[in-house]
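Ticket #498: bound-state structure for manganese (II) ion.
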Amino acid sequence: MTAPSPRALTEPVEDYLKAIYELERRNGAASTSEVALALAVAPASVTGMVRRLAAQGYLDHVPYRGVQLTAAGRAAALRTIRRHRILETYLTQVLGYPWDRVHDEAERLEHAASDELIECLAAALGHPTSDPHGAPIPTVDGLVDERVHRTLADLAVGHTARMVRVASDKDPDLLRYLADIALRPGAEVTLVARAPYDGPLTLRIGEAQPIVGPNLAAQVLVEPVLTPAPASAASATEPKPAASRARRR
Amino acid sequence: MTAPSPRALTEPVEDYLKAIYELERRNGAASTSEVALALAVAPASVTGMVRRLAAQGYLDHVPYRGVQLTAAGRAAALRTIRRHRILETYLTQVLGYPWDRVHDEAERLEHAASDELIECLAAALGHPTSDPHGAPIPTVDGLVDERVHRTLADLAVGHTARMVRVASDKDPDLLRYLADIALRPGAEVTLVARAPYDGPLTLRIGEAQPIVGPNLAAQVLVEPVLTPAPASAASATEPKPAASRARRR
DNA sequence: CTCGATATTTAGTGCATCCTAAATTGTCCG
DNA sequence: CGGACAATTTAGGATGCACTAAATATCGAG
Ligand SMILES: [Mn+2]
Ligand SMILES: [Mn+2]
Ligand SMILES: [Mn+2]
Ligand SMILES: [Mn+2]
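RESOLUTION: The complex was predicted; output attached.
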């Protein structure tokens, strides 16, 4: 099945497969121009690369229609994503790297580190399941939590949620701002008010009440929080079966 | 002075400059075939790369005569060597990597890590001055201990020396064997006997008396050790001024 | 001093990746 | 249904880095 590839993916190839995987997840498909945008290359370059990757069995390409990963392509993408996220976690947790700067570093190291090193880091971290931005870390054999989360922008006024992750870790300014207002994975956030016509949202995070725009809110992925009733212990362990169903492949 | 380079050395370029630096140090010059051998490429490939690097001001090339680093070339080489050796030290000391496997890993990471990360690792290690193989780590501004050491093969029978470093860290088998007989930087070794006609050497390291071939002995760089006389304190602090002169540029 | 072995360079290619400009295709609106 | 416009692919090139085979320079031996 696997094509007679030169037995090691190049850096550009790994980045293409990773980008296509993410686009497929977000948008259900990956178009030439989306990939071009994500990788900052010309659309024509994407067409060329896509032809080669399709020939090597990493993806299916219907001209003028878009591109889809094969099993081999998805496996390669998830391997790179695992490396990226383990590296980010190590940089943050062990070396004290700020969370807005780990992405660029990991973007290069992910192609250079050996499997042995990656697993060594993972072990040193106690086999983490999510990276500093809350993104799930695929397992060695390519299983990953693919749950889709709601965003802070969709939260109903008065409701509380727990932040799960940032939609993308590529924007340092956004990440710095989120850190400023203490919005990080695990944080509880309440939507206090929402201005009409897609206006700003008033949040409560701990004591603070930051006001954020809808664009930012759409970048913050949340999950419902099981508010423990102050005195009555009954509803605390409410199962919530539907929301916690992990999709693994 | 610096040529209009595309503002970042590629991985092959960094490896060429590093190899040329090492050859220049060892042999006083770097010939096309030596570089080709060191990098496992064809001699014709070296000629091509050398032409480009000379055009960019990293080295001087006299056709048919050999190649020499310019100041820019030496600086680039030392930067890569610093990264390599800091990475090796981190892998060994913090992650418990065996000393015979750090080289290959560092050989790739050295091109991907940012300056920031390298300095972060150096700080975490307390700014080490030598790598796991005893090789000196250049400073950020390109200063390096360039002392030339004698080898174990040159030691006089009956004399004791302290191992400084392994001549090269590229041979895992050699490194594993050295570790087996407890020959590591800092170890004290006494030459007990030398068989004639370039025969094997009998050493004493701690309690053990391993017998090694002259090829191996030539890979082990040593410095004279100031044997503290058990009772008489006279000869202990013998100055030995010539041997300890550090050459820094 | 000349010859031949050896080292080195030149010539001619291939492949991966990128680019710009010019076709081509798909879509959607009037 | 027929364009217009946007998205996409094709065409034609460039760059970096590698290779093999052929030419050429160097140098030591006789
Ligand atoms: Mn990358
Ligand atoms: Mn991340
Ligand atoms: Mn290298
Ligand atoms: Mn080393």
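RESOLUTION NOTES: The domain at 150-224 of chain B is CATH 2.30.30.90 (SH3 type barrels.).
TICKET STATUS: resolved
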